[in-house]
């Protein structure tokens, strides 16, 4: 049965995360309902990474197996006609059976946007995190240095995490400042449940002067979630990109450029 890969973008503010729930208020539920209407047959979706309630997707990738034939352009326009404004298919491509949206992924990149200002902005509600205490870029960058590479990230893992191992390899952690905005880029082979939001909480503690940068090394060594900072808001978190081997030839998402143009940033390097 032919396999199709889809690039999907969504505003997570309206949804209870990616994974299907009894309420039906998830991105997966809504996408599968649209696929059912489009193909006139029920199909299941496999995604590259499950996002939490309120987390956005700029470069989510899913695959489905179906014997129904459609033109590539029809996959995009036809599905988008059946989806709400907060979800849109960006591209569609036929892939070999060896492709798997989750297991074929070489890395995932998440972005977190934080606005650092004394007063919150209603225009950015749900789209950027907000911190009113002054943040120190140099301190956060120093803290990030301790997190790079392969570690046991138990201290940044949700108690509900179902991953078999807490070992992950953080390939990149870059922090940039653009006026009142801070942009955090996290790239890893895979992430634990709430890992990015928990890392954000700790980095922001350091940035506000509540902890020293070397605190990150202590947390990694102690492997105790109770000793770390609280989980930070999902509002400014975006699943930005999923990397696959070049042999699959998947296109890139176009939604990242739109986001950064809106916020006045240049596109990050990842």
From TrEMBL:
Substrate binds at residue 110. The keyword Isomerase applies. It is an enzyme of class 5 (isomerase). It catalyses: uridine(38/39/40) in tRNA = pseudouridine(38/39/40) in tRNA. One of its GO terms (molecular function) is RNA binding. Keywords: Isomerase, tRNA processing. One of its GO terms (biological process) is tRNA pseudouridine synthesis. The active site is at residue 52. InterPro entries: PsdUridine_synth_cat_dom_sf, PsdUridine_synth_TruA, PsdUridine_synth_TruA_a/b_dom, PsdUridine_synth_TruA_C, TruA/RsuA/RluB/E/F_N. Gene3D superfamilies: Pseudouridine synthase I, catalytic domain, C-terminal subdomain, Pseudouridine synthase I, catalytic domain, N-terminal subdomain. Its EC number is 5.4.99.12. Residues 9-103, 143-245 form the Pseudouridine synthase I TruA alpha/beta domain. It comes from the Bacteria. Belongs to the tRNA pseudouridine synthase TruA family. PANTHER family: PSEUDOURIDYLATE SYNTHASE (PTHR11142), TRNA PSEUDOURIDINE SYNTHASE-LIKE 1 (PTHR11142:SF0). HAMAP family: TruA. Homodimer. Formation of pseudouridine at positions 38, 39 and 40 in the anticodon stem and loop of transfer RNAs. This is tRNA pseudouridine synthase A. It comes from Pollutimonas subterranea. The lineage of its organism: Bacteria, Pseudomonadati, Pseudomonadota, Betaproteobacteria, Burkholderiales.
């Amino acid at each position: 049965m032919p396999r199709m890969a889809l690039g999907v973008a969504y505003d997570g503010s309206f949804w209870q995360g990616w994974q299907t729930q009894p309420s039906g208020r998830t991105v997966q539920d809504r996408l599968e309902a649209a696929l059912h209407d489009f193909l006139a047959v029920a199909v299941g979706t496999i995604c590259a990474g499950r996002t939490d309630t309120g987390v956005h997707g700029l470069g989510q990738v899913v695959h489905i197996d179906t014997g129904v034939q459609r033109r590539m352009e029809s996959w995009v326009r036809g599905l988008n006609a059946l989806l709400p404004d907060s979800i849109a298919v960006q591209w569609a491509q036929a892939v070999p059976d060896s492709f798997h949206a989750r297991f074929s992924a070489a890395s995932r990149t998440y972005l977190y946007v934080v606005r650092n200002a004394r007063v919150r902005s209603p225009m950015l509600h749900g789209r950027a995190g907000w911190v009113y205490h002054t943040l120190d870029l140099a301190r956060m960058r120093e803290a990030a240095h301790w997190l790079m590479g392969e570690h046991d990230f138990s201290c940044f893992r949700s108690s509900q995490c179902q991953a078999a191992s807490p070992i992950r390899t953080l390939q990149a952690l870059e922090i940039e400042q653009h006026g009142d905005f801070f942009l955090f880029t996290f790239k890893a082979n895979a992430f634990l449940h709430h890992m990015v939001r928990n890392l954000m909480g700790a980095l922001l503690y350091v940035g506000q002067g509540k902890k020293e940068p070397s605190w990150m090394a202590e947390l990694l060594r102690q492997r105790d979630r109770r000793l770390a900072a609280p989980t930070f808001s999902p509002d400014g978190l975006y699943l930005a990109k999923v990397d696959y081997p070049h042999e699959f030839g998947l296109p890139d998402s176009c939604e990242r450029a739109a986001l950064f143009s809106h916020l006045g940033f240049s596109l990050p390097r990842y």
